Automatic annotation (TrEMBL):
Assembly description: Component of the ATP synthase complex composed at least of ATP5F1A/subunit alpha, ATP5F1B/subunit beta, ATP5MC1/subunit c (homooctomer), MT-ATP6/subunit a, MT-ATP8/subunit 8, ATP5ME/subunit e, ATP5MF/subunit f, ATP5MG/subunit g, ATP5MK/subunit k, ATP5MJ/subunit j, ATP5F1C/subunit gamma, ATP5F1D/subunit delta, ATP5F1E/subunit epsilon, ATP5PF/subunit F6, ATP5PB/subunit b, ATP5PD/subunit d, ATP5PO/subunit OSCP.
Membrane-spanning segments: 12-31, 69-89, 101-118, 138-159, 171-199, 205-223
Catalytic activity: H(+)(in) = H(+)(out)
Main location: mitochondrion
InterPro entries xref list: ATP_synth_F0_asu, ATP_synth_F0_asu_AS, ATP_synth_F0_asu_bact/mt, F0_ATP_A_sf
Name the record gives this protein: ATP synthase subunit a
Length: 227
């Protein structure tokens, strides 16, 4: 029984073909496309307003060179939110609970920010490895520590997103199982547990949105250091 709780995180397959590609590509079909009319409907207007507000807030601390990343970061934000929200529906699969997928997002984007910093301003980029005013005996130790912390950044990005979504899905499944078990024996306790489950579901909706925002926000902060 304990092992079956983790079956929801296994990548689904049909006839030996993994279906994670469909789970990744499907959210793009759900987005409404802008029309050629002068006046759009409410859904497209809300979508455009949300993306423009998010992009303006994200690009605010960056200089003009970092604004080239606006389309990439905004698209990644909307994509992660959609995948996380769809994963809360029953009988669905959440691709962002797979560490390999999250690392596939985190490592190339983090590496791109590092390469940009080393190409455009190598002195400043290397200067982050050694804080100003460091005593001479501590210089080798601090360089090693800062280098390790630099390479841990993509791992932290991927693990944070995976751990938060996985923990939330496990809690929802555990409490839902408790509701079904308690319902015939103690209906009052089962109703109270169902109320807790409803509140937890609302919390997981917020977590799904916040974790996508935090993922993109940290990438923008890494980009800010290197442009």
């Amino acid at each position: 029984m304990a092992m079956s709780f983790f079956d929801q995180f296994a990548s689904p397959s049909y006839l030996g073909i993994p279906l994670i590609a469909i789970a990744i590509a499907l959210p793009w079909v759900l987005y409404p496309t802008p029309t050629s009319r002068w006046i759009n409907n409410r859904l497209i207007t809300i979508q455009g307003w949300f993306i423009s507000r998010f992009t303006s807030q994200l690009m605010l601390p960056l200089n003009v060179g970092g604004h080239k990343w606006a389309l990439l970061l905004a698209s990644l934000m909307v994509f992660l939110i959609t995948i996380n929200m769809l994963g809360l529906l029953p009988y669905t699969f959440t691709p962002t609970t797979q560490l390999s997928l999250n690392m596939g997002f985190a490592v190339p984007l983090w590496l791109a920010t590092v390469i940009i910093g080393m190409r455009n301003q190598p002195t400043v980029a290397l200067g982050h490895l050694l804080p100003e005013g460091t005593p001479i005996p501590l210089i080798p130790v601090l360089i090693i520590i800062e280098t390790i912390s630099l390479f841990i950044r993509p791992l932290a990005l991927g693990v944070r997103l995976t751990a938060n979504l996985t923990a939330g899905h496990l809690l929802i499944q555990l409490i839902a199982t408790a509701v079904f078990v308690l319902l015939p024996m103690m209906p009052t306790v089962a109703i109270l547990t169902a109320a807790v489950l409803f509140l937890l579901t609302l919390l997981e909706i917020a977590v799904a949105m916040i974790q996508a925002y935090v993922f993109v926000l940290l990438l923008s902060l890494y980009l800010q250091e290197n442009v």
